[in-house]
Design brief:
Elements: H1 4-14, E1 17-18, H2 19-26, H3 30-46, E2 49-54, E3 57-58, E4 85-86, E5 89-94
Antiparallel strand pairs: 1-5, 2-5, 3-4
Length: 97
Amino acid sequence: MTTVRKQIIELLEQEECDARMISQRLGIREKEAYDHIPHIIRSISAMGKKLTLTAAQCMSCGYIFRSREKVFKPGRCPACKKERIEPPRFKITSRTS
């Protein structure tokens, strides 16, 4: 049996997922999926891989959270103040990609 982090790494190597997809596929809470991401970033860098992040985006006005350093989904859009936010998505790729 593999650890949750190893399962997340395997999943993200296969496809791009947001935290909700990860939680549904692995049977963990969404917050727990977000909590694992910073640790996964450190682990995969030692393996010569990187985590590609597709930025969160406001579904109301289209604002993209490009400069955001946190991996969690933002609560509210700074431009229109609405809370309909598409969460960030994650994918593991090799450093050469």
